[in-house]
Amino acid sequence: DALLIEVQDTKHNTQGQAVIPILSIAENFNDKTRWWPIYHEEHKCIGKIQLSIACSITNEEGNGIKGSPVVETLAYDLLLEAAMRAQQFHSRNLCLHGSWKWLLCEFADYYEVSQCYTNLRYLSYIMNVATPTKDCLELVLDLLLPVIKARSDKRLNRQEKSILLECETQVESLLANVFENYKSLDKLSPTGMSDSLTTIPDAAPPALAPAVQLYCLLHDILAQDGQTILQKYLQRAAQKRCRRHMLETDEFMPTNSESVLVDPVAITTAYLKMKNLCINISSEILADIKIHNQHILPSSIDLSNIAAAVYSTELSKRLKGFLAGCPPSSPVPHVNELLAATFEFERDLELWKISTVQGGVDWRELFHDYIMVWVQEMQLGFLDLCKAEKVLWSGVITSHSTSPFVENVYLKIKDALTQYEMVISRWPQYSLVLENAVADVERAIIKALEKQYSEILAPLKDSIPKKLGMRVQKLARRQSATLYIVPNQLGVFLNTIKRILEVLHCKVEDILKSWASCLPVVVDKKLSFGEQMNGIRVLLKTKYKNFMQAVVAKLYADTQASRNTQLKRILEETQDADGEAEVSERMQMLTLQLMESISNLHEVFTSQIFIALCRGFWDRMGQSVLRFLEERKENRVWYKGSYYALGVLDDTFASQMQRLQGNSLLEKDLEPPRSVVEARSILCRDATNGTHQSNYFYF
After folding, report:
1. How many whole angstroms from its chain centre is CA 98?
2. H-run or E-run covering 16
3. Strand locations in 307-379 (E)
4. Residues 6+ apart with CB under 8 A from 513
5. Where are the domains of the chain?
């Protein structure tokens, strides 16, 4: 220590300085007035200055100096060094014991060397070889406790203060080493630390407790500064652990905007390592929670949230960089595994009540854009598959008598949706996105199917109700003389529409429904699901019904093509004397045509569609009789002919259906359709109220 005297000019520029060592003053208190040389830039003496210096010592400092004379302390230092050499003092053998310890105590007591000095001098040697172990920290704590108390009582002399200041710096460095590596501490390692990450400790290391006590001795843990310093130590500890975990994934991080991986095997390996990284980081946070719950750290230090904030932020940065360099192309298994690991990481933080961190792991921020791109690409891929030029009809049918194209596309849709099971099971709101995409694809399938069979469906288009102008145009056309023969491929088309409606669409809808059941409730109701699927179902039902009705209309139109097969004309020509035989004979050509049409339907369609068409055709023929009766109620001659005509129609359709379908028919399949029942009802009601009553009007 020294006094510094500066000589300045009137402009406060330093012209020289004198350095007066304090030791030179303390050696001779009587010589108060002396001359001191003034040097310029510590080289050239430019003059002298006479100073009268008075030196006073307070009682505390005087006692301190008196208690630790220079000669005695130097002798104690030599004795201490000899004791350490004799007992082979090193980082794992710090404690003095036996006769040497007794000798040091006796020497200090006899020569009045203060306890503070003996502790500090011993501590200075310890700090030169200190390791972050429990034994070392406890010894440092024991040595420092009385010294810190003496400092608080202002009982330290200048020499002790100087040694303490140097030791405090070393102790702070040791504490920083402990806190910044608290999960890597290993009492069996020569350095007190391990470089291995094979195991993540789930309990506080033995050295942590004395380190906290030592830290609280040197810092006011209730003050903001004391808490901030310790928090920074723990944050750096998390950063170090995180960095070591991320070493294996450094190779996958892009150095520029281009993708770093193209090999499928390498990409799979990279995603696996990223998944393991998420799992390891989650394990680190769980370990911190367990350590925090041991209540070793001060209550003002929330280790769980401090460490989790660092881990979550660093992991989020790593995931963003990785996904930018190796973007996931679709929800394939290795991508799904990383998605699941990310979801579970975020879910675990929530379950563990870890506070949300700005910039931490957020699955929506990380994967939302990729998921939307997957769905869009899947949709575009199916739409491209449904383009007319890519749907080639080869005449091949499946075991269900349906279009192979439709079966194949729906199988691919089901497989594609299966890939999203992991995504939807965790984030069910994406089921709405998939519903919209699948609905668009199903519309494209129906449109492509109609294009594929456009030539076969063309003759039926005029029979499907459309706008009024179209309908007038249809009615104005001349009827073709050629009878309509139902083509075999029309059976494939209608079978396909029916199978989509009853089987294929339902399977897809069931998958989406099972996911939608997990949708969160928003404003007292679940997020809307099912509108698109309902729309597809309505569309399919409408298509199926329209084409079925069109086939029936086409067959009915054939019965109107010839005068001899027009049922209305046959009924109009009925005479009062005509009996059942005459009416049946007059309807013979119509009956033959009906039988041919029914046989044609049986050759083309499967049983269910065949029965439905037969009953539809039967009902349409019955409507002719019903309208005839409603328009001509005044002529009861025609009632008798209508009754016989209905009997011929019932016999024809029922017998032909039984002949072709056999025992597979149900009883309800042979029941008269609605129009026939209504026509018979008119005949029965009018016969009961009329004057001509005959038994044949009752049935």
Report:
1. 65
2. strand 14-21
3. none
4. 529, 530, 533
5. 2-52, 71-218, 224-361, 377-465+483-544, 562-687
